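Risk register update: the risk of archive-format incompatibility is retired. Evidence:
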Amino acid sequence: MGSRRESTARQLRLAAELRRLREAADLSAREAAALLGVNSVQISQIEAGTTGVSEQRLRRMAAHYACTDDALVDALAVMAADRVRGWWEEYRGLLPTSFLDLSELEHHATFRWDVDFLHVPGLLQTADYARALFSRRVPELPEEDLELRVRHRMQRRVVIDGAQPVPYEALIHEAALRIRVGGRETSRTQLSTLLELMESDYVTVRVIPFDLEEFADISATMVYVGGAVPRLDTVVRDGPQGALFVESEAQLGVFRTLFRRVKAVALEPRRSRDLIHRLVKEL
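Archived output:
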């Protein structure tokens, strides 16, 4: 396979997992290349994500690495064979690569969790709410770029209301629901839309109320995307330099624990719905 001009986060994840399998087998790139009958440069390119790998070669690599996790190998084989050019490709070169990587990640998700303390999560936002958020960006976005971001965010909604929705669970702090992003009317419409989305069999929203005692899990803010197997889960967090994709098993375990802990203190869906209804009346 030829070299890529730019690797997606999904392709880089496949490359990283193959490197981890080799390292777990305590093999150098040179030793792995000898077992496969290729040169070490090819192994390095595959593990850097700059070139693809066929499903057949991937399975040979897994066998030589003595990987006994058949579910993981099957999932990696699907990633290797994937040639999908999704709807997000129309934005390539127009939006930051991390926007496209998140869309691709969501496309292949088996479930999705969000925890947010300041805003309604992106998948649940209305166009006006998203526009108000993007318009506050510094430096200010040109109108064309702002509208591109809004349109992309609205298209991402396919994850929860398209033909094949995935189970989605959001934990949203009451503060995020009370902040009037875009003004009173935009906030009212956003909360009303949130109530409508909560009617879906695939969408669960729980509110973290103000009146909790000793709540200190603000660091739990996250976008958690389920992979084909738990090892292939991904957490996406916003950072100073853009989106950060968290993939290590140890860190994923921490975020799973944080999510369960926050979920345990959040209101049940019915009580969350009642609270949001009350907030709509207050606007």
